[in-house]
Amino acid sequence: MSATLASSPSPRSADLRPIDLPALTPLRGLAALWVILYHFTWQYFPQLNSETFTQAIAKGYLAVDLFFLLSGFVLTHVYLARFRESVTARDYRGFLVARVARVYPLHLFVLAAFVIAEFIFAHGRAVMPLDGPLSVTAIFANIFMLQGLDALRLSWNYPAWSISLEFAAYLIFPLALPLLCQGGWLRRALVASGCTAIIAWLAFATEDGLNQWSGPLALARCLPEFFLGSLVYGVYRSGRWAGWLQSDRTLLLIAAALTLTLHSGAHDALAVPLFVLLILAAVSNQGRGGALLNCRPLAWLGDISYSTYLLHGFMLYLAGRALPYLFSTVDPGLLSFAQAAAMAVAMLGATLLAAAWTYRAVELRSRAFLRERLSRLGAKRAAAANRAAFT
User: Fold this and answer.
1) Which one of 103, 106, 196, 369 has the fewest beta carbons within 10 angstroms of its own beta carbon?
2) How far is 49 from 155, CA to CA, in rounded Å?
3) What are phi and psi of 63, to 5 degrees?
4) Residue 68, exposed/middle/buried by CB under 10 A (0-12, 13-18, 19+)?
5) Would you list the DSSP string of 15-41?
6) Each residue of 88-114: pLDDT tens digit?
């Protein structure tokens, strides 16, 4: 999950400053809140199951599909000028360094928090297994961003499976973008149809629909959606249907259709096309809808969305460890409705507070530090090249 909204007008510093894509940052924040509510209520506390009233919370795993689409869309906006024709080794290396600088520091920070907490709860005893979740093997898999290849066995912070697989998309993206940009609209439409067909196959071929988060099926979920998002950016950039997409009526109609689809528990295959339309309508809107999405609270929620997404798994871990002390049980299903609701609210509040801190103390500071180091390294390389040219 990490639909990153970080770039600048200059392609060379593209991942280091905010990018002007209206409404997508708040949209990412709402998606992060949706998946957190799914994990904190429907998945963890059965007492808070809202399926009697709506299926929308139970569909919260689909927020990750929206993240993948957003990532492809935004990164194409940022890097299209650089990678449109071809990719040099220097540009490819710079892109990967920028992506690592964006996603890795917080991932490593949360992983360290898990390992330290597990050591504390084990009272310092060397009880960590060699294999399986919360194991030594899983630590190394997370360090190298490989946990998504077998998340059932390699997870510490299980929501981090998505950033592992998204990093796989990063490895391909600079090489694929020139191919996606070349050719006419028919070729791009065929590629988009192929991506959509894979997503539809995955949604219909599995019992859990698009709720695939481990191994090859998770890759079959991530990669087509990421590159579909990239192709959708081409539609936005072309200006086709701009007049229709800019109106509040269109945004309201798409949002209502998506809400009804999720509320009724309709098949997952319907969600991705509606997400595509939602992204196009949100980023294109010139009316009150865009202004509402860009209000300060939603913009803040979007800013901290990567932190909230990674930290909420840690809050679930802490809640599980705290249950025996608070309620003398390890089974959250044995709590009363009031107890479960109080725990869920406390977990959500703690996640948002912690995310606000890690966003500033970890995400922004680590990016600034790495930007400074990379700038110095680039200056040294340029100076060395100049000296070599005159010798």
Assistant:
1) 369
2) 25
3) -60, -30
4) buried
5) TSS----TTHHHHHHHHHHHHHHIIII
6) 888 898 899 889 989 999 999 999 999
